[in-house]
Amino acid sequence: MGKICKVVVCGSAGVGKTAVLEQVIYGTHRVGQETTCPTIEDIYVANIETNRGSRERVRFYDTKGLTSINPDLPKQYLSMADGFLLVYSTTSQESFKMLEHIKKEIDKLKDKDKKEISVVMIGNKVDLNHQRQVEFRTASDWAVKEKIQFYEVTVANRSSLVQPIVSLTSKLTIPPTKSTFSISVRNFKPKQLQSFGDS
């Protein structure tokens, strides 16, 4: 386990960011459970097993839901994040459009700081298919264009939440590549040391 990775979880208000985190980390969220107050900021820390089998510690920053009146992520999240989990609701076209705005902000940061940032997008609430406003193909095409991974999930099925989190953690914790330059010492014979200044 190396450094603690920082993941900012963001999206519109009411898309289920907190429910996703509480369900995938603790398994405690009950579908239909109303939140008592809107999130301002909560931090969740979890040990996640990557697809390489290593266990990594991740700190998730559950951010305040963005609105059309206040669509910008606070700057401190943009500067400190190693990765982003973008969340929208499949039942809200507006929440999907919000991600386009957020992704532009992330891209500006990447261009400015030349920083490698991993992004995964999830469409929550697929169990409410009769209320769907965002088609899978629409979201999938956008994710391909933006070069980000995309999953549809529901907090009603905890296992659907695991893969996006594991995938993001695995991307954030890829070990440095080993050098292809190798030195063989089998046939190496050091030269005899020469003294300088001898006559």
TrEMBL record:
Annotated InterPro entries: KBRS (IPR042227), P-loop_NTPase (IPR027417), Small_GTP-bd (IPR005225), Small_GTPase (IPR001806)
Organism superkingdom: Eukaryota
Gene Ontology terms for molecular function: GTP binding; GTPase activating protein binding; GTPase activity
Keyword Nucleotide-binding assigned: yes
UniProt keyword GTP-binding present: yes
Keyword vocabulary terms for this entry: GTP-binding, Nucleotide-binding
GO biological process, one term: negative regulation of canonical NF-kappaB signal transduction
Pfam families to which the protein is assigned, alphabetical: Ras
SMART domains hit by this protein: RAB, RAS
Annotated family: Belongs to the small GTPase superfamily. Ras family. KappaB-Ras subfamily.
Protein's recorded name: NF-kappa-B inhibitor-interacting Ras-like protein 2
Source organism per UniProt: Strongylocentrotus purpuratus
